[in-house]
Design goal:
Oligomer: single chain
Largest sheet: 3 strands, antiparallel
Strand content: 15-25%
């Protein structure tokens, strides 16, 4: 699964998603993802700032799976 596929899936679940790259931030924290709402619950919020897009993708998938909410669930 890539970032766009995950964002599309989350949007279909009613979530809001922000995936950002910021060259003005220091190395190691240039990528950010925020996921909130929708099927995760009205009070849910996940944010991570990491060194790469792949690291953000993996962290997001891990967080979703820890909440029993995964694009890979049947």
């Amino acid at each position: 699964m890539d970032v766009v596929e995950l964002m599309e899936w989350l949007a279909e679940q009613g979530c809001s998603v922000v995936f950002k790259a910021d060259g003005e931030r220091p190395p190691g924290h240039r990528w950010m993802v925020i996921v909130s709402g929708g099927a995760m619950g009205a009070d849910s919020f996940f944010r991570t700032d990491l060194a790469s897009a792949d690291a953000c993708l993996e962290a997001t998938l891990t967080h979703l799976e820890s909440r029993g909410f995964s694009p890979f669930a049947l």
